[in-house]
Amino acid sequence: MRVVVLTTSWPRTEREFAGRFVADAVERLRERGVEVEVLAPGAGYRDFGLAYGGGIAANLRRRPWAAPLMLLSMWRAVRRAAPGADLVHAHWLLTAVVARFGGKPFVVTLHGSGSAGRFSDVELARRRPRLVHALLRRASAVICVSETVAAALRSAGVDVVVIPNGVRVPAEVGASAEPPEVLYVGRLSPEKNVDTLVEAVGDLNLVVAGDGPLRERVPNALGAVPHAEVERLLERASVVVAPCEREGFGLAAAEAMAFGRPVVAAAGGALLELVADGETGLLVPPRDAAALREAVERLLGDRELRERLGRAARERARERFGWDGVIERTLEVYRRAVDA
Fold this sequence. Notes:
Elements: E1 2-6, H1 20-31, E2 35-41, E3 44-45, H2 56-62, H3 66-81, E4 87-91, H4 93-99, E5 106-110, H5 121-127, H6 129-136, E6 141-144, H7 147-155, E7 161-162, E8 182-185, H8 194-201, E9 206-209, H9 227-236, E10 239-242, H10 251-258, E11 263-266, H11 271-274, E12 281-284, H12 289-300, H13 303-321, H14 323-339
Parallel strand pairs: 1-2, 1-4, 2-3, 4-5, 5-6, 6-7, 8-9, 8-10, 10-11, 11-12
């Protein structure tokens, strides 16, 4: 099978988080024998400065004139690549606008990214249901990465299938570091509630892997690091913190679970699907620094609780997010789309 993957986010270096989950899925599809051509900003089409930095939604405010230019470049890329493919797989709602012009069946995955604000898949489905329904009407299938995203799309009258992002579940995980480390992995931006994170646990043994406009608020942040380094940090961590209640999936939390690390998560968005309070981690009210600190200190002070929650989290991640199952379900969607 030959597939064209059309995405507005793709890691340009091994240190970038942006679109890493799309790149990981492409790698796994290729391992299964699927021929994949990726059309991404700067590697397939021109984005005219819109795709990276603060993200498309933020960049559009400064460069609205660039939107039609990017869409035209994207359209040309799809028209060039699609004739040799069986299927186009588009990521995010914007790409669905273009994927329909490829002349081939197309599948759309919606990630519900909170960084897009009111332009996220979820918010657009809630605020402009007719528009979203029209954009997706011709798609052979619409995949949502969580029930949180799926609920918004169903409310707009769109039929969806839920397939989460995949994560690697290592065969073995070593012991966490001493003294215990508290880990945050993600973008350092307002929607991630970085201020709450720093207020709550900034004076603990906090390790932060990520970059963004609030980098100066976290002076000891490591910045963007390669994914192999993220995995090393996960192995060292005793507790992982996920303070954003608007996640469309929560990849950092899912990866922490795969490494058997309990997650203290804001009770909102897709994190409610990942973290079972008192079973695989602890949930706290969003933007409540005192509650976040209390939960982290509870885990740091109770090794038996950490280990029990971590074991359950790892098993949950293996069952729900392991790559074998995720890719098999994706291929089944592909087969149905091509055979229809």
